[in-house]
Amino acid sequence: MNDSRIRRIVPTVRELMGKRAKVVMLAHQSRKGGWDFINLEQHADHLSKHLNAPVRYVDDVLGEEAAAAISGLGPGELLLLGNVRGIDSETAKGDMFMHSEGEIVERLAPMIDYYVCDAFGASHRSQCSLVGFPVRVPSASGRLMAKEMFALKAIFENPRRPSVFILGGAKFGDVSEMIDRVLGNGVADTVILVGLAGNAYLLARGVDIGEASTKVLQDELTPENLQAAKDILAKYGQRVLLPVDVAVERDGRRVSVNIGDMPTAEPALDIGDDTAEKFRKVIMSSKTCFMSGPAGMIEKEGFEIGTRVIMSAMVDSGGQSVIGGGHTGGAAERFDLADRFSYVSTGGGALETFLLGEPLPVIEALKYSKERFAKDGN
Fold first, then answer.
1. What is residue 326's predicted lDDT score, i.e. its pLDDT?
2. Is the pLDDT of residue 235 over 80?
3. Peptide bond into 263 cis (omega under 30)
4. Terminal CA-to-CA distance of the chain, rounded, Å?
5. 33's torsion region: left (phi>0), alpha (psi -120 to 50) or beta?
6. Residue 240, phi then psi, degrees to nearest 5
7. Residues 213, 331, 117, CA angle at the centre, nearest 5°?
8. Pick from 13-22, 269-278, 327-336: least confident
9. What distance in Å separates the CA atoms of residue 55 and residue 24, rounded to the nearest whole number?
10. Residue 374's CB: how many other CB atoms inside 10 A?
11. What gap in Å lies between CA 278 and CA 164, rounded to an integer?
12. Residue 346 carries which DSSP code?
């Protein structure tokens, strides 16, 4: 449905091919028990198509078939091994040092000269194939990983003013902490809340959003999260912008309902038309704009409108525009806007971790590898 993450690693792979490297690739897809826990054969086919070069696939990681395929590689040739999530030790909890002794690293590290990680989207995970190799062999970030970090650092360290952050999506548990960080540190001048975060903050402000909308929030609607939202509204006031209306499905149609006319029997599925116009004007006056998470249920026809309006304003504003999160990037591609953004991040959970100011385990492992192997003259 969306192979953007596969396409984004093509420059790194092509560069390694150009250096006549024998390239062995590791990747994961879902996890055991997931409906989409599958082997990576189709991933190899997609990558081969985008590279216009053959990518051999073996459905093995630790066995003789994988070892034989690796030893048989010629300069500039490409091999993708099986889904590493099929190995239980891959997802065991532990730091880089523990994972450096994991069976994936123990088996494969002696067969390689260098480890390159281009998986920013998984950089928040301390897992064997991601953090174990840098302890054992000289390691580096791929070109995509480097671009991700440069783009995000530009947003967070030197944003052009005014800077607007738009936070949405289907989760809101960490939103209050994110808002406090970007407003408290001066990274953002204004935060716009959409999606479930917008609905949750309306509830925190005293708006009766209705039982149907409240039920959707139930998993994260803890007293602590609700109080945190109230504290943020009290602390930052008008710097946190909330929807003035929401869109619901009524008799098969999209209908905008002003928050003064709530609650509604139907759940809020998108920001309303007045909200979309209000936020469009704010975004058009921005010089830096960052968005994580869509504004509504974009997979449902008629309720992608809020996300489309916001994204269109971001690229039309002429400022620095960055979006992140798998669903957000997918929406940008669907609207034919992806190429107009300053940068589209591949990160979902990694981006959230970065937003919270927490260290990314993969980045920390790469830093460790640089320090360790630079001392050895590598």
1. 66
2. yes
3. yes
4. 41
5. left
6. -110, 110
7. 115
8. 327-336
9. 10
10. 10
11. 13
12. -
What token pair was written down for 115?
């480890």
| Residue ranges of domains in the chain, CATH in brackets | 4-146+359-375 (3.40.50.1260), 161-318 (3.40.50.1260)
Phi first, then psi, for residue 371 (nearest 5°) are -65, -45
Amino acid at 133: F
Answer whether 0.70 is exceeded by the pTM: yes
Of 196, 164, 178, the C-alpha closest to 354 is 178
Q: Provide the 8-state DSSP code for 22.
A: -
Task: Give the C-alpha separation, 140 to 236, whole Å.
Answer: 40
Hey, what are 78's tokens? 């490409």
Token code pair at residue 141: 């970030």
- Report residue 240 as tokens: 């946190």
| Beta partners for residue 280, in sequence order | none
Say whether 81 sits in a helix, a strand or coil.
Answer: strand
Place of tokens 């409240």: 214
The model's pLDDT over 331-340, given as tens digits with 9 standing for 90+, comes to 998 999 999 9
Strands 245-250 and 253-258: antiparallel
By C-alpha distance, which of 134, 132, 131 is closest to 114? 134
Say if CB 346 and CB 371 are below 8 A apart: no
Compute the distance between CA of residue 77 and CA of residue 55 in angstroms, rounded to an integer.
Answer: 8
- Find the largest Cα–Cα distance for the chain: 70
